[in-house]
Amino acid sequence: MQLTQISPAIPLTSLDGRYHEQTAALAEYLSEPALNRERITVETEWMILLSNGFEGNGNKPVLSGIQPLKKSEVNYLRAIADNFDADGIARHAAYEAKTHHDVKAVEYYIDDELDKAAEVFGSDTQLPGLKTLVHFACTSEDINNLANARCVKKAVTAVWLPKAQELIDSLTSKAKEYRDLPMLAMTHGQPATPTTLGKELQVFVHRLTRQLRHVRGQEYLGKLNGATGTFGAHVVACPDVDWFEISREFVTERMGLIWNPLTTQIESHDWQAELYSSISHFNRILHNLAVDVWLYISRGIFTQVPVKGATGSSTMPHKVNPIRFENAEANLELSCSLLDTLSNTLIESRWQRDLTDSTTQRNVGAALGYAVLALDNLSGGLQCIHPNFDAMTRELDDNWEVLGEPIQTAMRAQEFAGHKGMEQPYEKVKELMRGKRISRSDVESFIDSLDFDDETAARLKALTPETYTGLASQLVDFDLQ
């Protein structure tokens, strides 16, 4: 039995197969049928604007000889996209098989729906006679750039952003919960000045929030200006129409995008490069988080909650593998690779047009799909870990040498205050502590051997690796929204 003979067809990629449940929401906006539905919306809304005008032109038809559409006829046109179902998808595909042109297939699909209008409104309706208005003065990219922008905007707004915010909210909650929990820091993999677990998580909250702000503020651009961006056909057909005003109205008010008046045949895609770069940067911060948490688990800082019935290893029954974080790493790398390729490819086009952007943009769904999958893995992973308090306390108590920093810094201050024997503080502490295991008594003896004032000596003696966390707890409270 060949797998290609099985029906329904077996998905080629894991996003539509193994991980379908986690990524299915994106199909509503970034699948081929979703794109065609938006193309239908662009085409029919363009017909409505040309027929009924807008407030700026007194709600008069843009083209002479057209009667304004009735409200019921406007609703009928808008319903063509709303009712684009499985049968509609198949009918469009049949047209595309003949035309070998996806946008032309959309045009013929709308023509069919206009013919059916007489069955709804009777023979008096003008809709069947408006076929010539479909795709009026448009090049395919007038339709495609607007449809793609609307698809991407909806996918980011409805799917990616909520999941990204959910992860940040989860991290924020954990940062606040563990704001005062002391933890040995590691710089270059070596014991360093202690911090708190909450503060370290808040660092990621801060970084991710900044990137999310870029995504939320992203402009989504669109154009409608003809075959090479000159409004050439528009002006020849209707020289008395203010096509700048019409184009701006359509793109901004009807399509909900930012109007781009200066383009070649294609909208230049710079906004897409900006957006994908921001999401890719967000991904890389998440990758850093996934790696750090993985290392914390390996070190014993975090303990994983076993999933009942789950197998960690096929041969070692004791294992609880950090697979959520490993899966997140891999999917973030795949997402970044695609997003980076999109950013690099889409901003270039040979002279006024080539088709490299057409096939490239069909991979936006995959790029965001891997990102969404990673977000789900990270969110699930964070819910299944908790701090190992005993291990964290043990680490701190085993590394009294980290108090060398505050002692030598206090010595510098004492030297300025006129206390004797405080010169070369760094060198003296280095001789005592570097490469050695130091106990509390060693630290106290060293402090007693120096001419600290009583208050400073008492403050240093009261210090432990567990209490030497500076203002870490307060940093968690910074308002970074």
Overview of this protein structure:
The two termini are 57 Å apart. The protein has three domains: 27-133, Fumarase C, Chain B, domain 1 (Orthogonal Bundle); 144-306 and 320-386, Fumarase C, Chain A, domain 2, CATH 1.20.200.10; 399-472, Fumarase/aspartase (C-terminal domain) (Ribonucleotide Reductase Protein R1, domain 1). The model has no long low-confidence stretch (mean pLDDT 94). Helix content is 59%, strand content 5%. The chain is elongated and about 105 Å long. β1 (182-187) and β2 (190-196) form a beta hairpin. A two-stranded antiparallel sheet has the order 1-2. It has a two-stranded parallel sheet with strand order 3-4. The protein has a two-stranded antiparallel ribbon with strand order 5-6. It is mainly alpha-helical and 481 residues long. The chain has 20 helices and six strands.
Q: Which helices and strands appear, and what pairs or packs with what?
A:
Blueprint: H1 20-23, H2 27-30, H3 32-52, H4 71-82, H5 86-99, H6 102-121, H7 140-177, E1 182-187, E2 190-196, H8 197-216, E3 221-222, H9 232-237, H10 243-254, E4 258-259, H11 270-299, E5 302-304, H12 323-346, H13 356-361, H14 364-383, E6 385-387, H15 389-397, H16 404-416, H17 425-433, H18 440-448, H19 454-462, H20 472-475
Parallel strand pairs: 3-4
Antiparallel strand pairs: 1-2, 5-6
Helix pairs in contact: 3-4, 3-6, 3-7, 4-6, 5-6, 7-8, 7-14, 8-11, 11-12, 12-14, 16-17
GO biological process, one term: IMP biosynthetic process
Domain Adenylosuccinate lyase PurB C-terminal: 349-469
Protein name: Adenylosuccinate lyase
